[in-house]
Structures are given as C-alpha cells and as structure tokens.
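Data deposition worksheet. Section B asks for the primary sequence of the deposited chain exactly as it was used as input, without tags or linkers unless they were present during the calculation. Section C holds the resulting structure in token form. Section D is free text for depositor observations; keep each observation to a single sentence. Incomplete worksheets are returned to the depositor.
Section A, Depositor: J.P.
Section B:
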Amino acid sequence: MRLGRPPLIQLTLACAYLSACGGPPSPEAFVIRDSAGVRIAQNLWSDDADLPICSVAAQPAVDIGVVQGDPVYQLFRVFDALRLSDGRIALVNQGSSEVRFYDAGGRYTGAVGREGEGPGEFRGVRAAWENGDSLLTWDDELQRFSVFGPDGDFARSFQLVPRLMNEPEVLGPVANSIHIAYHHLVIEPPGFAPQTLYHIRYDRSGTVIDTLGAYPYGTYGPIGRPDDFMAGRTLFEPRTAMEASDDHVFVATGSTPEVSVLDADGRVVEIVRWPDEDRTVRPQDIDRYREERLARSENPDWRRAVLLSIDEVPVSERFPAVADLRIDDTDRIWVQRYPRPGAGPEREWLVFGHDRRVLCQTTIPAGFAITRIQGGTLIGRVQGDADVEHIQVREFSLPPAPPAPID
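Section C:
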C-alpha cells in the first residue's frame, strides 16, 4: 500500500466569468498593502451578485456507504475522510475502530486498526493525515497519535505530554510540529463568562513546545435549575474557527469578516478581509431560529433543553461573520458565511485564491459536511436514508484567474 501522487481530475468549468454567473471583480475591488510586515489583502466588492459562481456537482462522483450488505461499506461514526496521494480514499470509521481504505472509485481495499489500547489499536480514532509516505492518526480517547507505514504496518505511537483534561481539536502537522486547538469549558454559577480557545504547538514526539495564541470561544453560563443546570451559550455569538495546512495555520474569530494566516511559529503573516454585510440580530430571527430547532424533534425533554438554550441565554447583537473555515490542498481559503435563520439547508461559501482575492462564491448541498477539499473535489459526510452514513466525493469548478491586483 503505497501513498504516491493521485492523477489529476479533469473538471468541466460550469461557469467562467459569464454574465449569467457574474463578472470578475474589477482590479479596484482588491487592494494589497503592508502593515508592520503583515500582508493585508482587502477585497472590496460592493455586490455579491458581481461575484463569479463556483459550481459544485449535483451528484457525487463517488459514494461510499450502504444500509445493508458487505460490512466494509457500512459506515458508523465517520469523523474524517481524505484522499491520499496515490488516489485512494481513507475513512476514519470510529464505529469499527479502523481507518479504512477505498480506491478512487470507492472499492474497499483494506484497513488498519482495531479496538483496543495496544500498538496500532484505537479507542476513539478521530482524524488522519498523510505525512510523507506515512499515515498519522489521532485517537481522542487515548490522546494518542499512531503512525502507519506505506504498507499499512504500524510504526510507532506517541501521546500528548502533559495529558489535557478535555479532548482537543488536532489541527494537524504544520512544518516540523503538531498544532492543536484546545478549549477547557469552565461553568461557574451564577453568571456567564467568556471562554478561550488556545493554540498550542507540540513537537513530533507529543511534548508541548509553547502556546502560540488565545482566541475568544464564546460566552457560557449555567441554565436551568440551580440544582440541575446545563451549559448555555450566548445565542448567535461567534466562536473562533481554526484550520491548518502543511506550513500555515488559519484563524477566523468570526467577529469580523477576516481570516488571519499564521506561520508555524504563530506569527501573523497575512490577513484576508472582505466586505461586511448587515448582521443585525432581530427579534424575528430569534423566533424563526426557535421554530426551526423545535421542528427537529417531538421529544419533550429535547424540546425543553432547546427552549432553555434559546430563552435563558443572552443574545448577541450581531450574527457571526464566519460559520466555518476550510483550507484546500493548494492553500485556497474557503469561508462559510453564517446562515441567518430561515436561510434554508444549503450553505453559502466564499473561496479566496492564492493571492487572497475572492475567486467565487458557491453553495454546498444540504447535509454535506466537508471533511477535505483535495484534487478539485470536495470530500464530505452525508447522513442518508435511515440515518445511514455516506462519504461522498463531489467535483467542483473554479473560474479563470482574475486581473492583477492593485498594490
């Protein structure tokens, strides 16, 4: 099992700067400047209708997952999926304590791991990364990384030192280190208090090197009865999103329409900005949000918890500017705009190119949760009929490069 480079996927451009799809933003709509050594990329378009459209295929090119049949195609608790450099697809299937491998067409080819705490075993496998010719995996429950060689053989493992109280979000390998985002929720009655997301760097043996940053992660407090409370969070308040590539970490606090790009040492080297929009939270937004949440279930206990989480918490004056963040395999930035209540199940994204100018806007199909963006495709998780999990690969197209920016 060798992890080599995948064949390029030939895509058909469904929309290329045509009048029906929106024209290219003018050079005046993008300005680059320097601020104390930090590159500021400012997008200045005035109307979303002027932006080109990136087309996402309506039907998946690959669909892995079945209701009944061969167990190797039955998925449960898939937390990650990625395309390896030899074209195979790797799925982190926590339900079977495995990382499964499928060829480019979705045919099962093998797996690594099993349930347990021994070498090459998992208790709560959650993520995987291709690292050179090896596969690096992360187990939340054991707080342990495992390395598998190009033939799938277990090579070594290491744990975080010191062990963290809560499960961290591992951003992945960055340069010669491993970066994580860590949040330790603290609820102290009776009031609400701001929480913090820490950006921590570890070496390749799991030993902490330093804390590179601290970012806002919402305001939490107790809701419900004093003797039986649960955690509540300020409604519509932004929380920091972080992603990593091979050499950089990307941070969006969500309070403003911007993404900061950090080097492996945590220094801000670039800031990408785009026009803000009216994000005012109005009473009708709260009412619509309550209706949408309650419509999901008739379970009385669940509905009671939903009402508490909406009616007994503070409400932000503005919606977040960013709902989610992804980085594709060429370091393009994908930003999901925060959906207002009533916006529908599809999600709107902005795509920024290598020079950090907006390339296009796109809509991701309802229920498609992106795990990776690689090789001109979106890889994501879908909950299908009978709550059966699927991993799908969908092709997308990008418009041609726009005119040169103004410095």
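Section D:
Confidence is low (pLDDT under 50) at residues 1-22.
The first strand starts at residue 30 and ends at 35.
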